[in-house]
Amino acid sequence: MARLSYSRPPPYAPLVNFGKRWGPSLGIWGFGAGTAAVFLLSVTPVVKNGLLVNLPLIGSYYEDKTPACDKPF
């Protein structure tokens, strides 16, 4: 006689399936949106001084080399 056993799927199974399906797409779109946000906000002093100047390879590009006497404010 065959034994019949029923096992319930774990409660996190829908979350795992959602992550497998949509994870790569959401990651790509999130990376693109983050890149666009940093690009558009790169002219603001908070983003420029707080984030972009501290990047290892391209930080010197974003440093302000204008002398203090030439700045209007």
UniProtKB/TrEMBL annotation:
Keywords: Membrane, Transmembrane, Transmembrane helix. The chain crosses the membrane at residues 26-47. InterPro entries: Cytochrome_b-c1_su10_fun. GO terms for cellular component: mitochondrion. GO terms for biological process: mitochondrial electron transport, ubiquinol to cytochrome c. This is Uncharacterized protein. It comes from Coniophora puteana (strain RWD-64-598) (Brown rot fungus). The lineage of its organism: Eukaryota, Fungi, Dikarya, Basidiomycota, Agaricomycotina.
